[in-house]
Amino acid sequence: MSRRKFLEQSGLLAGGMLLTNPLLANVYQPKKKLGVGIIGLGDRGRGIKSVMDTLPECYDVVGVCDVLDFRLAGAKNINAKTYKVKDYRKILEDKKIDVVVIATPLSEHYQIAKDALSAGKHVYLEKTMTYSSEQALDLVKIAKGLPNQVLQVGHQYRSSPLYYKVKEMIEKGYLGKVTHIDCRWDRNWNWRRAVPDPSLERKVNWRMYKEYSGGLAAELLSHQIDFINWTFNTNPQEIFATGGVDYYKDGRETFDNLQAVLRYKDAEMIGTFGATCANKKDGYLFKIKGSKGAISLLVNEGVFYPEKETMEALQTVDGVTGATKITWNKDGGIPILEEPTKDGTWYALKDFYTNVVERKMPDSNVVTGAKVAFCVEMINQSSYTDTLKYWKPEFNI
C-alpha cells in the first residue's frame, strides 16, 4: 500500500487520525430530557450520576436508591429535589422516571433489570450484564419481547471514538492478519472499601465474595473481552484460566491474581487476559498484534506501530502530491488520535440518550452483553476448577 493511499483511507494527518465515529460527525441536538432513577450508589453509581450532571440537557436524576443507609446519607452531588430510597421498586413505580441505571453488585443485576423492563423502563445496566449464563439467556428472551424498550450494557468501548477508530482500522486491514491479543489490567491495591460496621463487610466489599461477584474477569477484563468480540465478530471457543488468592490473605474468595487464555478458533487468534492486585507496573495494557502492525491502547489514547515493511511504505514520499507528513513517536508509532478522549462513560451516556429517544438498538445491547457474561462465567469456572471450558451451542444467540 502506498503512503498516499494509507493517508487517504485511514484519515491520517500530521499529529493523528481523523475521527469517523458518527457520535462526532453529527450535530447533537437533544429532543427531550429523560427522568432517571439510579439504583446503586457505590463508586460506579455515583460516577454515572456525576457524568449525567454534565449532560443536563439530556438527563434529570429524579430518584436514587441504595440498600445501605450510609451511602444514601453520604451521597455527594445529589440535588435537593432528588429523593432517596432503599427499595428499588419505589424507583420503578415512579412515572416521572423514564430510564433506570443499575449499578448494584453483579448478583443483583438480573432481577432488577427484569423488574425494570417489566415496569416499562429503559435500562442502562452496568457490566457485566448478569452473574450467570442462565440469567443472561433469560434476560435476552425478555428484552427481545419488549422491542420498544432499550437495554444498554455498560461496555463503553463500543461508544468511544478511539475504540471505534481502532475497530475501523482493523476492518480495513491495516494490521494485516491479527493472531494475538495481549490484555492486562493490573494494580497494587487490595480493592477494598472502608466498612463503617463489620456487619456490612459482604455488602460493601461484595467484589471479594463469589456469592455476589464475578471477580477480576467481570469487573475489569470484561471490557477488553467485549471489544474483541465486537471488533472481530467472534467469541472464544475454548477458555483456560488459572488464578488464586496469592497475596491478600484477608478472607476474600474471588482471586487477586487471574490469568486466562481465550482461543478464537474461527478467527485463528489467541487472546491472553490477565489481572493482578499486587503489582501496577503494566497497569492497563491492551495490545492487538497483526502481520502488518500492532496497536497499543490505553483507556483513552492509542498508538499504531507498523511492521518494518509497512513503515517503509508509509515513509515513501509521493513526489507528485507531496503527501502530508506523518508525526511519529520516538518509539516508531503513530498516534491514533490527536488528543486523548473523554471518559468513556460520557460517550456511552450520550449514546444511551440517543438510543432511548430514537428507539435504536445499542451497539452494546442485551445480546452482546450476554456473550460477554458467557465468557466471564467460563473464565471463572475454568479458574475455580482447573479445567478447560468450551463455548456451548446455546450461547449462539
UniProtKB/TrEMBL annotation:
Keywords: Oxidoreductase
Signal peptide range in chain numbering: none
Pfam short name (any one): GFO_IDH_MocA
Organism domain of life: Bacteria
Record carries keyword Oxidoreductase: yes
Residue span(s) of domain GFO/IDH/MocA-like oxidoreductase: 164-295
All residue ranges annotated as the Gfo/Idh/MocA-like oxidoreductase N-terminal domain in the record: 35-155
Oxidoreductase as UniProt keyword: yes
Protein name as annotated: Gfo/Idh/MocA family protein
Taxonomic source organism: Pseudopedobacter beijingensis
Lineage of producing organism: Bacteria, Pseudomonadati, Bacteroidota, Sphingobacteriia, Sphingobacteriales
